[in-house]
Design brief:
single chain, alpha/beta, five-stranded parallel sheet, five-stranded mixed sheet, 17% strand, flat, disordered N terminus
């Protein structure tokens, strides 16, 4: 009897179909109600699942809801969790009220179906009958989704046209309320205490002429941006002014009593805070300080690199014989103790360390405070590594991870934003580690080469770094000069003899020094210029090694 019960139980288990319900609503209107649209969708789907109980359908305990999220993209927390659970094999069927709850984009639908098919899962729209196992069913579904996407695009165009028409009438069409105004009956009205600050900002702009100086003055005076309460109780804004925000404020025609639509402005239905004269004066200063277009030569570490004393290193360049040389130099008027690092050395070192860190699975997981990387995280990690190999990969990555670099005489320290790295890899970090940063330290030696400093990673210092052709050629000339002196000593004139003697002394360099030069293992500060200028080159090989930096 017991065996029969066990067999029946096993049979039911084999027929069990785990069902999940996904609900979505584009706007937040009505979500505060006790029974809202998401609950209605869930109840309808739950009733459908109950009707299929004889087929073994059972609801999983978790709900997958996306309140206030558009179906135009896949950036929805509920949908992401649903797809993750499907990939983990926890769900067999997804129930939807309508197919457009899942997506309104045909391309996104294709990606979702790939996830479903990869995990052997399927979906059911309880108000629409589909059988996607047949070609006709897939055609019907694609047509419906095409109409859904068409409907969304038409709605977008209609809203865009409505906003354009409203702005041409001078109406306020929404968005953050500008500093200096309040919103009453969907119209902007002057808030006098903030309007006084706006007038002062325009006046100070005339006084200081630059946004940087204006920003510093406002910071000293303790002024902050307009606080904006959010629906969830958070407060946006209420922070010190920044140059980008000041540029936006000073170029906003709202303060002149006008509304911008495209590249034109129209008389607004609100009062102006400043007059025409103040407006035009600020526009002239902004135009004068307009950022120059980038020349294509990017210094990705600009604004992110400093020396051991906390002094910023700024990007600089020089052009010699038509070739451009880039540097990171100390931002100081005192040249004593100032640094001038070749940009290529530092950027190569930073790129290599980031590449090593991202390729090391265990090191990456440990830094993030997680036991291991999941399959999806591995794919994103692979894309990051691939991105590093591209021309602008370093520029993009240091910006994404908010990397800060501190250069000292014996090391380079990279500080990464842990939250940013977790977001890029799609990982929810443990709360106790989320605010901490990640530090990567590279042992490197600061060496002088001519008039500039070179930064050489310690691990690479002893490795092959490529033959210096000038040095190798110099050694060859030394051997040729010595041979000529031996064979034709009586035939060369005194001036030629002096020149040959200068080169011939290189014939007597220690063998290990010659080998190191030919294999590219010489110290970074040894150049052809230095070797020729070393007039007192010792005969002793051990002394030669000291003088030329081999010991």
């Amino acid at each position: 009897m017991a065996s029969r019960v066990s067999a029946m139980s096993a049979s039911r288990s084999a027929q069990q179909v785990r069902c999940a319900i996904y609900t979505r609503k584009s706007t937040e209107d009505g979500l505060e109600q006790e029974f809202n649209s998401l609950d209605a969708q869930y109840e309808a789907c739950a009733a459908y699942a109950l009707s299929q109980q004889h087929e073994g359908w059972e609801l999983v305990g978790q709900r997958y809801d996306d309140p206030g999220f558009s179906g135009g993209n896949l950036q929805r927390p509920g949908l992401k969790q649903l797809l993750a659970d499907i990939e983990a094999g926890k769900i067999d069927i997804v129930l939807l009220y309508k197919i457009d709850r899942l997506t309104r984009s045909l391309s996104d639908f294709t990606r979702i179906v790939e996830v479903f098919e990869g995990a052997g899962a399927s979906f059911v729209s309880i108000t629409q009958s589909f059988n996607t196992t047949t070609s006709m069913g897939r055609l019907t579904l694609n047509m419906l989704l095409s109409f859904g996407q068409f409907e969304r695009e038409i709605a977008t165009e209609r809203i865009r046209d409505k906003i354009a028409a409203s702005r041409k009438r001078g109406m306020w069409t929404g968005g953050p309320v500008p500093l200096g105004y309040d919103l009453k009956d969907r119209k902007l009205v002057i808030k006098e205490e903030e309007a006084a600050l706006v007038r002062m900002i325009f006046e100070l702009h005339q006084q200081w002429e630059t946004l940087t100086a204006l920003q510093a003055d406002l910071l000293d005076r303790g002024f902050r941006t307009k606080p904006r309460p959010c629906k969830d109780g958070r407060i946006m804004g209420d922070v010190p002014f920044r140059s980008g925000g000041l540029r936006h404020l000073l170029s906003n025609p709202i303060y002149l009593g006008r509304v911008r639509q495209g590249d034109k402005t129209y008389p607004g239905q609100h009062e102006a805070i400043i007059d025409q004269q103040a407006w035009e004066a600020s526009q002239r200063l902004l135009e004068k300080a307009k950022p120059r277009p980038r020349t294509g030569h990017i210094s990705p570490l600009a604004g992110r690199i400093c020396d051991g004393e906390g002094r910023n290193l700024i990007s600089a360049h020089t052009i010699k014989q038509g070739k451009r040389y880039r540097y990171y130099t100390s931002k100081t008027r005192n040249s004593a103790g100032a640094w001038r690092l070749p940009a290529g050395d530092v950027e190569r070192l930073v790129r290599q360390e980031l590449d090593r860190f991202l390729r090391d699975h265990e090191r990456l997981a440990g830094a993030l405070g997680i036991p291991c990387l999941g399959e999806e995280t591995e794919q994103k990690r692979g894309r990051l590594v691939e991105q590093m190999s591209k021309a602008k990969g370093l520029d993009h990555l240091v910006s994404q991870l908010d990397v800060q670099i501190e250069v000292q005489e014996a090391s380079v320290t990279l500080t990464l934003n842990r939250n940013a790295l977790g977001a890029v890899l799609g990982i929810e970090l443990p709360p106790e580690t989320s605010d901490q940063s990640i530090e990567l330290e590279v042992a490197a030696a600061l060496r002088k080469r001519g008039h500039e400093l070179r930064f050489v990673e310690q691990a690479r210092q002893d490795a092959s770094r490529g033959r210096d052709r000038s040095l190798a050629s110099l050694l060859q000339k030394g051997w040729q000069a010595w041979d000529k002196l031996k064979r034709e000593a009586d035939q060369v004139d005194p001036s030629e003899r002096s020149e040959l003697t200068r080169y011939a002394r290189l014939r007597f360099l220690a063998p290990d020094i010659v080998s190191a030069v030919l294999e590219g293992r010489q110290p970074v500060e040894l150049t052809a210029r230095k070797l020729m200028r070393t007039s007192n080159l010792p005969i002793s090989w051990s002394e030669q090694r000291k003088v030329l930096g081999f010991s």
